[in-house]
Design brief:
alpha+beta, Immunoglobulin-like, four-stranded mixed sheet, 20 strands, 33% helix
């Protein structure tokens, strides 16, 4: 097709205009503004926020989605309005309070005009609900540290008042509060004058100082419970089954923030916001911090931040990643599934991997790691001269198949399994057990079979060397705790006396597991 000179000039003008317009569109786009925002009020996929009763509350979490795929918390940066007005009130940090019965639409409007909505339904907003002691009162003692190991939760209590550690025995707590000391801590005729409240507010001198503010939501909850006659709860009341947090994981910028919402799920299927009744703890205070309301702040320190959330006996965890920010565009070839996960983590934290080690460095490291000794001069020369691209993999296989590996790791496993010469008469058994461990490693015995042969060992040591383990761990308690720590990778000792404060193990779990060892007997 032939074009005239005039047509060509017009086409060039058209291309120029389009190019200018596209450039203006790109330059005009504000990549600091979210392309979309979403609003959540639960760790579960609940459509409406349901608030029932005068004390019901809900926490909103507003998230912005950006051009680069990032998600950032905007809870404290958006404006939330309710239509119609007068049904609920929303604070600047996303805390929803009912004002009257009805329905309303909450609209969160973010930077650039993007918005998201959620429906809220309120009922019995002027009515005080029946209080359940284990579900509502006990968690407050944990939240404010009253039942911690350094306060009333220690074995002897504090100044004549005792609570179960971290509230794991609410029935005992009820007895201590309501009936102990002839009920002097409770005054149903005038709840405000109850010692339980006057001590907590420091109106009556309290060694722990003021814990709650008079007139606060938690104060009014305890006051209502006393006014109702201190009910413990009914047999058919729902029981807590699970606690979940939203978001469960988030990549955060340095000096970034994230609001959390914690939701409790009960045996009847009901959900309840327990964000401000939960206790939050961070694992690394150099990376970030969290307040009583579940608001996470991170500092100018890259790393991983874990926030453990506890409510009653249940635990949830939020994981935050604060990337270093360096580009990770050069990665070594993936050799196995472990590399896949390692490289994924390096990309997430923005940490470029180290350069691949030289042959001499690799040989030294792998020899020390697998055999506990440096390579010989002959092996070093042969390895450095080898031009086979797969020589590193072959070296690893060679070392794992060699006797030096079994010798080296047999010493490690002997120490873990307490194989020691405590008596001269035990020496033959000790040597036999060590030899069995070494042979198991040399044969590449599967781990589950190795563990089974230790735990289920029976007979004479000479014929069945793993029996020597039972000679050192003689009690059911020692057997259980060794198995949990060595083979399951968890410490369970705390659960012998109370629910584990940092794990999900309860006393019931402890004694159920110990029952497996209760039938172990010795003939001599």
């Amino acid at each position: 097709m032939n074009f005239t000179a005039s047509a060509k000039r017009n086409m060039k003008k058209t291309y120029l205009i389009v190019a200018v317009l596209l450039q203006q569109v790109v330059w005009g786009a504000n990549f600091d503004e979210p392309t979309e925002i979403k609003i959540r009020h639960s760790a579960y996929d609940a459509k409406e926020l349901v608030l029932k009763g005068v004390g019901a509350r809900g926490q909103l979490v507003v998230t912005g989605l950006y051009h680069d795929g990032d998600e950032r918390d905007l809870t404290r940066k958006v404006k939330v309005t309710a239509q119609p007005a007068g049904v609920v009130e929303v604070s600047s940090d996303g805390w929803v309070k009912p004002l009257s019965d009805g329905e309303a639409i909450l609209t969160a409007t973010g930077p650039g005009g993007t918005s998201s909505t959620v429906r809220v339904m309120t009922s019995e907003s002027g009515k005080i609900q029946r209080v359940n002691f284990p579900n509502e009162i006990t968690p407050l003692f944990t939240k404010y540290g009253c039942n911690g190991g350094g306060c009333h939760g220690k074995s002897g209590g504090q100044n004549g008042f005792r609570l179960s550690l971290l509230g794991f025995e609410p029935d005992e707590d009820y007895e201590y509060i309501v009936k102990e000391g002839r009920g002097r801590r409770i005054f149903p005729a005038a709840p405000d004058r109850s010692l339980l409240l006057t001590k907590a507010t420091n109106e009556t001198p309290h060694g722990g100082g003021s814990k709650i503010t008079k007139g606060s939501l938690d104060y009014e909850l305890i006051k209502s419970w006393i006014a109702q006659g201190m009910p413990y709860g009914e047999e058919d009341d729902p029981v807590l089954e699970q606690v979940s947090v939203y978001p469960a994981q988030r990549v955060l910028d340095m000096n970034g923030e994230q609001q959390l919402v914690v939701t409790a799920k009960y045996s009847d299927g009901s959900l309840k916001d327990v964000t401000r009744s939960s206790i939050f703890e961070v694992n690394d205070e150099e990376v970030g911090e969290v307040d009583l309301n579940g608001h996470v702040k991170v500092f100018e320190q890259p790393g991983d931040l874990g926030v453990m959330i506890r409510f009653q006996s249940k635990v949830a965890v939020f994981r935050g990643i604060v990337p270093l920010g360096a580009p990770v565009d050069r990665l070594p070839p993936v050799a196995n599934y472990v590399d896949t996960h390692v490289f994924k983590k390096l990309k997430a934290v923005g940490m470029p991997p180290s350069e691949i080690s030289t042959d001499s460095t690799f040989l030294r490291r792998v020899s020390l790691d697998l055999t506990g000794r440096l390579p010989s001069l002959e092996k070093t020369k042969a390895f450095l001269a080898d031009k086979d691209p797969a020589k590193r993999d072959k070296l690893i296989d060679e070392l794992l198949d060699g006797p030096e590996y079994a010798d080296f790791f047999a010493g490690k496993w002997s120490a873990l399994l307490r194989n020691k010469r405590s008596k001269t008469s035990y020496q033959r058994g000790n040597f036999a057990f060590h030899g069995w461990i070494r042979d198991s490693l040399h044969q590449n015995k599967p781990y589950d079979q190795f563990v089974r042969e230790v735990v289920a060992a029976s007979g004479e040591i000479e014929q069945h060397p793993p029996v020597a383990w039972y000679r050192e761990v003689k009690t059911v308690q020692n057997q259980l705790e060794d198995v949990a720590q060595l083979f399951l990778g968890t410490r369970i000792q705390c659960a012998q006396c109370h629910h584990h404060p940092f794990e999900k193990w309860s006393q019931e779990d402890y004694y159920k597991l110990s029952a497996f060892f209760s039938q172990v007997g010795r003939e001599k």
